[in-house]
Amino acid sequence: MVTKKATRPQKKRAPAAAPAAVEKPERTPRQQAAVDDFVALEKSRRQFVPITITTLPDGSNQITSATAQIDEATAQGMQCLGVGLTNGPEYTALLHDVINLATNSEGGVDQGLANRFLARVHGIGPTNSVEALLAVQMVAIHEQVATMARRMQKTQNLEVAAYAAKTLNNLSRTFGHHAETLQKLRTTPGQQRVVVEHHHYHLAPGAIAPGSNAVLGDVNGGGVQSAIEGQCHERENGLLPPERAAMLGYLETDGVPVPSSRALGKERLPVSRRASRSTKGKR
């Protein structure tokens, strides 16, 4: 006889409640203005198209765009334009350098690191081949600067810290030289920047503004009067302003003569000679 085990009726589970929608706080006018400025700036800049790296069985790397919304030819054109290059072979060579920088010690390529390199080169905004090469070097140096700074921060070995600090200093200087070279390349040849500053001084009549040069005396007719004579003449007639008198110094404004050694009764020091030797060199 076979008995059937009584089964309890299963309770129907209530459907899971949908998560409550989180209300986004309203933006303030200042926040909305910042968002609008960011969107306008993003639209004005070149669009960065990331890449996908696929390692083939023969060990080579196949590079394609990681954007599915546009076709491959358009993506490659946007990638070339983003790094300032105008043809495919140059962009392929630049990608080869970036992949070498993103290759780890085991031979694998870090796709995220490669895209980070390309994004920084894209952010520098090169406009030709030379600027693109400088941008790649600057990004590589910056990556090493960050590595050395992290190593110097975490190590407790003084020798390792000293080596990291020295390398960090050299890399930082090299990065600065690269940035200066890039700025010079972007400057129009022969262009000079002239800054004109206007300074207003409220001076007494006859006073001379600080930092200015003037000729004191009559410049019309028979020659230019010397500055010292003009100053003495103005001092005697009381025409020299207090500001100018202070600039001439204590001796000239007060007329105190400087005594010489002869005036004080001091003669020249005698030259010591041996008694058996005359002034003409004969004994």
Q: Would you mind describing this structure in some detail?
A:
The chain has 283 residues and is mostly helical. Helices cover 47% and strands 4% of the residues. It has a two-stranded antiparallel sheet. α3 packs across α4, α4 crosses α5 and α5 packs antiparallel against α6.
Assembly status: single chain
Uncertain stretches of 5 or more adjacent residues? 223-230, 246-254
Q: State the order of secondary-structure elements, H for helix, E for strand.
A: HEEHHHHHHHH
Q: In percent, how helical is the residue content? A: 40-55%
Structural class: mainly alpha
Largest sheet, spatial ordering of strands: 1-2
- Give the beta-strand count: 2
Question: What is the average of the pLDDT values?
Answer: 75
Distance between the termini: 160 Å
Tally of contiguous helical segments? 9
Largest β-sheet summary: 2 strands, antiparallel
Radius of gyration: 41 Å
Beta fraction? under 5%
The backbone outline, from C-alpha atoms, is extended
Set out the fold topology.
Elements: H1 29-44, E1 51-55, E2 61-65, H2 72-82, H3 88-101, H4 111-124, H5 129-154, H6 158-186, H7 227-236, H8 242-248, H9 250-254
Antiparallel strand pairs: 1-2
Helix pairs in contact: 3-4, 3-5, 4-5, 5-6
